[in-house]
User: Fold these one by one.
Assistant:
Number 1:
Amino acid sequence: MNDRAFLLNQIASQLFNQTTIQSFTTVVSEHQIIALVERLEHKIKLLKNAYETAQKRVKILEEKNSSLRVKLQETETELEELQKKQLIPGKNTIKSKDLGIIVKDNPSDLDTNTELKQQLDEYIRELERCITHLSSLS
């Protein structure tokens, strides 16, 4: 008698004593008990596999979370450095020699006030785009 059969006999003897088995109209056969144990073993294997898969997934997610935290820290440090650079006076202002270049580039054929106003509006829009761009960096 192998270990499985011995175990089944032990289970059967504990579950049913001789008088209980005789009182049933349907007697549980040894094959039914073996089938039940095999189903339980199969379910245990499935649960074990699901548990191992979940553990692997947790490990992967923890590693990804860790790397994202490091990346976030690096990004925050870079942001702080950029904000410090932006707060330093004189670094982002236009120097007077640059203003001379802007004035020099102004076309001399603009004679009327309307044309001058349009050109000024265009410069203002360009400045607003630059300000928006600089604001998006911080």
Number 2:
Amino acid sequence: MDRPPLIVPTLCAGPFILRPWRLADLAVVREAAADPYIPLVTTVPAASAGYDDAAGRAFVERQWARAADGTGYSFAVALRPDDRAVGFVGLFPQADGRASIGYWTAPSARGRAVAGHALRTVAAWALDDLGLARLELSIEPWNAASLRTAERTGFRHEGLLRSHRTIGDERRDMHLYALLPTDAREATSDPREAPDPREAPDPREASDPREAPDPREAAPDPREAAPDPREDRSQR
């Protein structure tokens, strides 16, 4: 059965705004494409596979299509001062009042609580405005920064899903986190808190040897992404 189209709103998220994607956002797609982890768990085309502006435009158009076909709300996370996109967050409704969330932050914007602000804002909007009953995150066990982002936002750990998803060419376990309306009311953490020094980018954690970090930039940190089943590369 066809789903009605969705309208992606613009939401305030502290020093960021969440808004629909634009073709002017290709710079952040290009940066994400060069990250060793983001293309593995999303539909961002990999630089190693020959990324070009046509591939970047196709990614943006896929985000528009999610709303048009009623399958999800895809937001660009942008800085307030200049409206420059620095990341992604998506909400994907499922059956019976549930929805899954995925997010990523561009390497150059890490350490600024981008994911924390985006996740908290989308979660509050989904529970309060859309009236959803349950939000879910799937995060790899090694992804300590993303696990902390989920916990600081009030998501609760519910278990380990063994061999839950194929990432790259191997099956991976996933921690399942969930947030209910009652959990959200009890959460008191603030994504604006000082960054945890343990979350500093570590070039040793680059998961793809084909993507050597550029010493002129902050080393890519694959820990700042939470994959979402709706963003699986098989759906490109």
Number 3:
Amino acid sequence: MSDILVMHPSVAGHSCAATTTGRGMISRAHMEQTIRSLYAARIRGDLDGTVKDLAEDAVFVLNGRGTGVPAMSQDCCGKAAVREAIGQLIDHWRFADWKETSLMVDGHKLALAWTAQVTFVPTNKSATIDVVDMITFRDGKIVDFRQSTDTAMVMSLAS
């Protein structure tokens, strides 16, 4: 199970918070385009495209408390650390048949529900998984990205 995600030692176990106050409003269209572009890059396995719209102080969290995997329940802080974590996710988890099921925007926050056929590469196990992302923008960049999914299913794919 340690192959799920290994966080950089400088961020594992630490909690962080990015500043979410921006200097101006961001358009709904920009937020929608940004997240759709991020997932298009993620599906292609394009790390640079996946992280290009992250703020330097971005926070990424997989809401997996209770899994016994520290990296699934601790904040990943800063663009460099998030890039490393996303790179590991791209290397270990493949998406097929990715579908946006709902997208809602409220001010500078976006909620995205999606489903995909997800494969854990080391075990070659696959399942259809539903995911909800809660994303906060500041000055046109993603500053906070929290992902929630069926952690029991994720763990079963990884075992």
